[in-house]
Design a protein that fits this description.
By secondary structure, the chain is α/β, with parallel strands linked by helices. Helix content is 40%, strand content 16%. It has helices spanning 6-15, 21-28, 45-54, 66-69, 79-90, 108-111, 117-134, 173-184, 205-220, 241-253, 281-300, 336-346, and strands spanning 32-37, 57-60, 94-102, 141-146, 189-194, 227-235, 257-266, 304-309. It has an 8-stranded parallel β-barrel, surrounded by 6 helices. Strand 6 (227-235), helix 10 and strand 7 (257-266) form a beta-alpha-beta unit. The chain is globular. The chain starts with 5 loop residues before the first helix and ends with a helix.
Length: 348
């Protein structure tokens, strides 16, 4: 594998065509090129047009989560989630479900309620059955459980779902959620999604290893899991490429698919150099190099089937203003990153 370098980036930018990313990936049978979208911005023509032109897979940023879909117990609001699905269908895109169960973004009635284990099982069962059945055969995959692992001891984080008591049928709420999801939509691929787990080396090694062992244990217990989502909310200078490659390889060895699910590369402060990030050609080149190198790893991996950024334009990002984390700028113009990724796909 040859990682894209800054010295070659000028050639990449000059030589790449203007063909949409999704077209190249689809024509070559490569991984999906995806982005998270927010239906609140569908009224903006540039937003809709850029997403439709460049991407062949979309994930709803927030509107398919528990708190959005079931704000009142037993009363479901599918408007936002349906809007993203409709957008995907209209534009020939795959629709990725995100998510069934998470420690966060839950409705107040759930977080503030005093529920015992049996009642929580019922709540989870009703929610996954209702949502999963509505989108049955319409989603390519679901993030069944999101961010369940602690950042310190890597055990299951304390949350409302942690109060579900293990039984002979399931060892934790995680196992239960995957079993329910398979019953609700047998065709969708079922994923566990988390952050700080992309590389099996460096600062993410501990949590990455814990997640791998958790997934391997689920397979051994017969829990229906198909893949893992690697969130990558990192900086422009991220460079643990060997660890990402090795991590994907070990998942492939146990039959688990990998999606890069939430990628953005922020222009960061550099305290070791005693300076703030200055957004200009140098920072853009560093960001483009990193986007291209990660895409190249995904394209070359037998496990990686989706390369997805968390948003696509700097106009709408969950990160702080001035971090410039996404491939298109605030005016929906291509940054160096788009041209670099296009070249990776053209040469795959």
């Amino acid at each position: 594998m040859m990682i894209v370098t800054l010295t070659s980036l000028a050639i990449i930018i000059a030589s790449a065509s203007s063909q949409p990313l999704r077209s190249i990936a689809s024509e070559k049978g490569l991984c999906y090129i995806g982005a998270a979208v927010n239906e609140a911005y569908f009224t903006q023509e540039s937003y809709r047009a850029t997403a439709a032109e460049q991407y062949n897979l979309v994930t709803a940023e927030n509107s398919c989560k528990f708190g959005s879909i079931q704000p009142t117990r037993g009363e479901y609001n599918f408007q936002g989630c349906d809007s993203v699905l409709d957008f995907a269908v209209e534009n020939g895109m795959q629709f990725r479900g995100h998510n069934f169960i998470w420690a966060r973004f839950n409705p107040g009635w759930l977080e503030d309620g005093d529920f015992d284990s049996d009642e929580l099982v019922k709540i989870m069962t009703d929610h996954i059955n209702t949502v999963g059945s509505r989108y049955k055969n319409k989603t390519i995959a679901w993030d069944v459980v999101n961010e369940a692992l602690n950042d310190d001891d890597y055990g299951l984080r304390d949350c409302i779902w942690h109060n579900i008591t293990a039984t002979e049928s399931y060892t934790s709420y995680v196992d239960l959620a995957f079993t329910l999801a398979r019953a609700a939509d047998p065709q969708a691929k079922l994923f566990y999604n988390d952050y700080n787990v992309a590389s099996s080396t460096g600062w993410s090694k501990g949590k990455s290893d814990a997640m791998f062992e958790m997934v391997k244990g689920m397979l051994e217990r017969g829990v229906p899991i198909d893949g893992v989502g690697l969130q990558m909310h990192v900086g422009c200078g991220y460079d643990m490429f060997d660890g990402v490659r090795d991590n994907m390889s070990r998942y492939h060895e146990i039959g688990i698919e990998v999606h890069i699910t939430e990628l953005d590369l922020a222009c960061e402060d550099k305290p070791e150099e005693n300076k703030d990030c200055v957004w200009g050609d140098e920072a853009q080149e560093e960001q483009a190099e990193t986007y291209a190198s990660l895409l190249e790893i995904c394209v070359e991996s037998e496990a990686c089937t989706n390369f997805e950024t968390w948003g696509f334009t700097d106009e709408h990002t969950w990160l702080d203003e001035g971090t410039h984390p996404l491939p298109f700028d605030e005016e929906y113009e291509e940054k160096f990153a788009v041209k670099a990724m296009r070249d990776v796909l053209l040469n795959a």
